[in-house]
Amino acid sequence: MPSTTRSTTGSSRSSKSASNAETLTDRAYTEIEELIVTLQLEPGSVLSEQMLSERLGIGRTPIREALQRLARERLVVILPRRGVMVSAIDVKSQLRLLEVRRELERLVARSAARRATPAERARFAELARGFERAARTGDDKAFMRIDREFNELCLAAVRNEFAAGAMSLMNSLSRRFWFHHYKQAADMPETAKLHADIARAIAAGEEKAAAAALDRLLDNIEAFTRATVEA
Question: Looking at residue 225, what is its pLDDT?
């Protein structure tokens, strides 16, 4: 019996340690992703685990794991024995990304409207109000944070790990491109209102309305991206 008790306790401690590590990795990812998306870490910047660890007050192991995830999402490039570089912003790549994004997001919007739980629907309604508030105040960073939560909630509500995995590779790149160029070619309040329309339709369980609102948003984003090319 004593040996069983020790084993259970050790297992509990190990589980708790793993949970803490995962939380720190998630926090590291969220904070570094926001620094990159909002251009506080500019394209071409060379980063190091040590520098990020000191800046964020997080250990190097969670930082390393967060950077690996960011590399999969193409926000950073890992340079062997040289560090990590924030990836460049490429307009042509963004147009190719939009081709895929439109088809996937239609699926995500319809599926989230159909499959979201009551609690998720309530949160979508709250996010719709948050988007409208950001539109009224013109607060671009608040909009970016709400948009990130909206994207994450959509990926949870879709109940499809393959669609969620594919979309997660595009969301951060899309937000960074928008943040980088929106002052020259986009209407932030209009973009926020278009997001609010999708969130409201999902909250109401209206699949067709969610897909139609999604198309209006992506029409807006594609026009913005092409205007960026011309500019």
Answer: 87
Q: Any idea which fold 2-86 has?
A: Arc Repressor Mutant, subunit A (1.10.10)
pLDDT in tens, 105-121: 999 999 999 999 999 99
- Our separate counts of H helices and E strands in the chain read 9, 3
> Quick one: pLDDT at residue 23?
87
Q: Determine the Cα–Cα distance for residues 195 and 181; give it in Å rounded to an integer.
A: 18
* Selection from 127, 171, 165, 181 nearest residue 151 by Cα: 171
**Rounded to whole angstroms, how far apart are CA atoms 131 and 206?**
19
Give the C-alpha separation, 197 to 177, whole Å: 22
Every domain of the chain and the residues it spans:
2-86, 91-230
Dihedrals phi, psi of 73, to nearest 5 degrees: -90, 5
- Top CATH class, 91-230: mainly alpha
Q: What is the structure's pLDDT at 231? A: 61
Q: Is the pTM of this model over 0.85?
A: no
With a CB cutoff of 8 Å and minimum separation 6, the contacts of 72 are 169
Report the C-alpha gap between 146 and 144 in whole angstroms.
6
Q: Is the pLDDT of residue 19 over 60?
A: no
Q: Is 196 exposed, middle or buried (0-12, 13-18, 19+ CB in 10 A)?
A: buried
